[in-house]
Design goal:
By secondary structure, this protein is an all-alpha fold. The protein has 8 helices and no strands. It folds into 2 domains: 109 residues, Orthogonal Bundle (Hypothetical Protein Yqey, Chain: A, domain1), CATH 1.10.1510.10; 52 residues, Arc Repressor Mutant, subunit A. It starts with a helix and ends with a helix.
Length: 173
């Protein structure tokens, strides 16, 4: 797998030696999510029964055996972080502080594996560059700016922070 998975294996061993059950469990969940993302690449015919009646077999995708690359690992990590954030919000609304604390601890472990983030100044500079490249002229052009901005940020910035910067800068154009 990618560099992140290698780091996870080392950290898993360290967490097990140290008796850090929270870190151990989060790393195991994340590695399982990586494996699930890899397995999800299998292409199954829409009508499995009709394919079987014709004598076709479900072919194992060659992509299934290919390890996740760094970008795919980052996408899985970001999905896991988003799940924890949503859980924290829901548990908070339900007044379940014990579950909020557990999810917050898991979120802290997951955030350790994110690439270093961009500062506000870097986000603003990147947003200005993307606005200039796309020729955006106002808030209506958010649909042009955001895909390019997210791609250029490469997971180093939260999409909400990117969106806020784009809205602010497009409003002043």
């Amino acid at each position: 797998m990618g560099a992140l998975d290698d780091r996870l294996m080392t950290d898993l061993k360290d967490a097990m030696r140290a008796g850090d059950t929270n870190r151990r469990d989060v790393i195991r969940f994340l590695r399982a999510a990586f494996k699930n993302a890899q397995i999800a690449r299998v292409q199954v015919p829409d009508d499995l029964e009709a394919a079987a009646a014709r004598g076709e077999e479900v072919a194992r995708s060659a992509d299934r055996d290919r390890p996740l690359d760094d970008a795919e690992e980052l996408a899985v990590l970001q999905r896991q972080i988003k799940q924890r954030q949503d859980s924290i919000e829901q548990f908070g609304l339900a007044k379940r502080e014990d579950l909020v604390a557990r999810e917050s601890a898991q979120l802290a472990v997951l955030r350790d594996y994110l690439p270093t983030g961009m500062s506000e100044a870097e986000i603003e500079a990147l947003t200005r560059a993307v606005i200039a490249e796309t020729g955006a002229t106002g808030p209506r052009d958010m649909k042009l700016v955001m895909p390019a901005l997210i791609a250029r940020a490469g997971g180093r910035a939260d999409s909400r922070a990117l969106s806020d910067a784009a809205k602010r800068l497009l409003a002043s154009v």
